[in-house]
Automatic annotation (TrEMBL):
GO terms for cellular component: extracellular space. It comes from Cepphus grylle. This is Erythroferrone. One of its GO terms (molecular function) is hormone activity. The keyword Secreted applies. One of its GO terms (biological process) is positive regulation of D-glucose import.
Amino acid sequence: PHPQPESEGMFHRGSGLNLTSGQYTAPITGYYTFTATLHLVRREQRRKWQPCRGNRLRVLICVQSCCQHNSNLETVSWLESGVGLFTISVTGVLYLQAGQYASVFVDNAADSPLTVQSGSDFSAILIGV
């Protein structure tokens, strides 16, 4: 038997994913493929759009909350001015020791707040030891 999803429409197999903390803990040492797809809504900007300041958005999947180079997966997007819904994804392979966890981080350097929408997902699959 597999744990039941905690909300309708979710697929949840295995015990590594903690839906409360948003962390995936590796049950065994090995290589895992991770994917995060975030649906974000950009709200009204507080200030005028300033391209020189940057409207950069980074989404990372980091091991043990350590987002240093070579210990994370990262994608960078430059946001256009305006309000609206957009999607950003990051995927790749990370090596985790048994008991280590991985989680998703959003680094928002834009001038306006973002809200993660339902339908966003985060997955981990063991591909080899």
